[in-house]
Give the backbone structure.
Amino acid sequence: MKDNKLRIITCQNLPFVIESKGKYSGFEVELWEEIAKEIGASFDYEKHNFQELIPLIADKKADVAIGAITINEKREEIIDFSHPIFHSGLRILLSKNRSKIDFFSTIRAFLKQGYKQLTKPFLIFLLIIFIFGNILWLGEKSGGSLASTYFPGVFQAVWLSLCTVVGSTGSMFVYGISTWYGRLILTLVRIMSLAGLGLLIGELTAFITTRKIRLNIEGPNDLRGKLVATVRGTTSESILKELDAVIVSVTEIGEAYNKLKRNEVEAVVFDAPVLEYYVLNDKTKTSEIVGELFDEQDYGIAFQEKFLLREEINRAILTIKENGFYDRLYKKYFGKKQ
């Protein structure tokens, strides 16, 4: 590559950037090439993962980045952007066969999100065990089976109670419960543990049932607690964190589509035009977009800070919009503007 050529970094992001055998096409590629013609710039493309684009520009290891990059305040702290080149937002992609629940994805969701349903019952359970341990110690301390002092006597009694809950009796022989009072307390603990097991099974069943009912996602507020795939390092990931979704991060959007097809996730959230292009061109017709556009955003061309060609590029963008090239390009990839 010659020194006077611009280093343009990008990533596969249909229909904005389409790479095949080292050749590039797509809405933003054609737009950039028209801009380069306007300003008389030569360049070379370099393909990277999306999450590498901003750091490479910030570290001045590349000149320009394209690929549906959202303009936001955090990014503008370390890089610069052109005028907006595309108005977008996020949409939700679902499988048409979403009534089916994958066992392993359900378990993953429960471990990441559903456990919150059991936190309070579990803490109450531990408190009850501690109370029973105190009662047991009071009845047994004079018989010599447990230490007569509160510490470590109460710990011995609590340990006995916990062992009883899990069905272990080995500790009883260590401490040798000698009174009918102590045996009665431990019997009550065992009964309570069976009730607790029933509660656990009930909560898990309720989680799965609720999860199945709520697979009818209609908007962003329905994503709470759901397994949702998106591309790592994008604004979509930040929004999903705010929505309290269980995020499954991928390197490229194609991975997210595949996870949805395999029922490994319940939804994909990403830039609206990217998802719309996918649904339009997906021959299997197994997915659909639901809900309205949310978290509206603008894309821009990313530069190093104080990039010398920034003003020239911005003027070229205005020229391209005024002479009709932008509208023709938009229609080619997205149809008529709404």
